[in-house]
Design a protein that fits this description.
The complex is a heterodimer of chains A (about 210) and B (about 210).
Chain A: H1 2-24, H2 27-30, E1 45-46, E2 52-57, H3 70-88, E3 92-97, E4 118-120, H4 131-137, E5 142-148, H5 150-163, E6 167-171, E7 175-176, H6 180-190, E8 200-203, E9 208-209
Helix pairs in contact in A: 5-6
Chain B: H1 2-21, H2 23-27, H3 30-33, E1 48-49, E2 55-60, H4 72-90, E3 94-99, E4 120-122, H5 133-139, E5 144-150, H6 152-165, E6 169-173, E7 177-178, H7 182-194, E8 202-205, E9 210-211
Parallel strand pairs in B: 1-9, 2-3, 2-5, 3-4, 5-6, 5-7, 6-8
Helix pairs in contact in B: 6-7
Classes of the chains: A alpha/beta (about 210), B alpha/beta (about 210).
């Protein structure tokens, strides 16, 4: 009798422990065991210059500098090439900043030419701005997104554009975060998140043909 | 003004030189560097107390026939979510649901199904886009949202970010979000905890660490 009781108690304890650990388990407990999936493929793209806009996001002195933004600084010559090619084809180029920054706080090498639209917002540049209206008024169907941070303005705006019906092209060498995990996870999610990933293509600047 | 331009030019030259010297570091983009990336430490999970009058519980896409189907990780969140839901309702907090695709409110998992009168919005990923979620929350004076659901790296990540960018405080219970892919769950929690622009608006917690 005592043995049976003891066995029952042990079984109950084991069950409770199992239930306890199952409900306690979350991604925080499993954190160390997480492995990064394989890198996504980069694809060549050809865009129609008439209905494509280049979005130049937050290339600002305050976030793109040698102290915080080394990878952004390094991306500037690459982005400048893309910008020059887009302008040569008369493509729409739209700029952004955040907080109290103005167009004057954008790096001179890649600065707006005075007639190109400029919006100010955090992360998702469609929120609290007329970016959607600017793009739709010009008949834009595709946006090429470059900028910093990769997991901030680039990620937020590319994802939002995808959900708003735009085709989205993201050159990985035009977006940057100094934290590599931030950059990697942003890049991966853009082409793996449910539904919106179907609208986003990852590429490199020299794989974009006009 | 002129002085600051000169200063920035000097920094630019210095930065360009530094970049030129370390050029291979960038020539390799994130795809080339993929295998060398290490995950950062997990964010701290913190207790949090909310005011039920200004707090809404967002229950996103708990759809057994959609992302919560054949997904043991989503199914495993349901008991904790059922408890949290009961507690939120008992304290009079607002509850808002979402669905996606071709689904209706009747498709939401029974354990956490909406009661009549609780709003249901329909959209993909960021539930503020193409819905009146922002208006629903503002009309009720909501300042804090507790975001749960699936997929973690879809509905939870984008709606959580969307709420923070709209000025709300955002509470993310790690036992209320799920993806079939662990990396997707991890990046969701990390990006919400550390994403630029969110400041301190987002708190990572667990459902039993929320006090109403």
């Amino acid at each position: 009798m005592r043995r049976i009781l003891l066995a029952a108690a042990v079984t109950a304890a084991v069950l409770a422990a199992a239930a306890g650990s199952a409900s306690a388990a979350s991604i925080i407990d499993e954190w160390a065991s997480v492995k990064a999936p394989a890198a996504p493929a980069l694809k060549p793209v050809t865009v129609n210059t008439k209905d494509t806009a280049l979005l130049m996001l937050d290339f600002l002195h305050s976030n793109c500098n040698p102290e915080r933004g080394k990878r952004c600084i390094a991306s500037l010559p690459i982005v400048k090439k893309l910008l020059d090619r887009a302008r040569a084809k008369d493509m729409l180029v739209v700029y952004s900043a955040y907080g109290k920054n103005t167009e004057k706080n954008i790096w001179a090498d890649v600065a707006p030419n005075g007639t190109e639209p400029f919006v100010v917002s955090f992360l998702d540049k469609f929120i609290g701005t007329d970016l959607d209206k600017i793009l739709k008024a010009k008949g834009i169907k595709t946006v090429i997104v470059v900028g910093s941070a990769a997991n901030g303005a680039a990620f937020g705006t590319a994802s939002s554009a995808a959900q708003r019906g735009f085709t989205v092209i993201v050159p990985v060498d035009g977006i940057s975060s100094d934290n590599l995990y931030a950059e990697q996870s942003a890049v991966w999610n853009m082409v793996n998140a449910p539904v919106i990933s179907s609208k986003i293509t990852l590429t490199k600047v020299d794989m974009v043909k006009f | 003004m002129r002085r600051s331009r000169i200063l920035w030019s000097a920094i630019a030259v210095a930065a360009a030189t530094a970049v030129a010297l370390t050029a291979p570091a960038r020539a390799a983009d994130i795809i080339a560097e993929w295998a060398s990336v290490k995950a950062p430490s997990p964010p701290a999970v913190k207790s949090v107390t909310v005011d039920p009058k200004t707090t809404a519980l967002l229950m996103l896409d708990f759809l057994p026939s959609y992302y919560c189907s054949n997904d043991p990780r989503c199914i495993a969140t349901l008991p904790a979510m059922k408890k949290l839901l009961a507690e939120a309702r008992a304290h009079g907090a607002t509850v808002v649901y979402s669905i996606a695709g071709k689904f209706t409110a009747a498709d939401i998992a029974k354990d956490v199904a909406p009661k009549s009168g609780e709003p249901v919005v329909k959209s993909h990923a960021d539930k503020f886009i193409h819905t009146d979620l922002e208006k629903i929350l503002k009309d009720k004076g909501i300042q804090t949202v507790i975001v749960n659901g699936t997929a973690a790296n879809g509905a939870v990540l984008y709606t959580g970010s969307g709420a923070a960018l709209r000025g709300m405080k955002v509470i993310i219970p790690v036992d209320g979000l799920s993806s079939k892919n662990l990396y997707a769950e991890q990046l969701t929690v990390w990006q919400l905890a550390h994403g630029p622009g969110f400041g301190k608006r987002i708190t990572i917690t667990r459902s039993d660490m929320i006090k109403f």
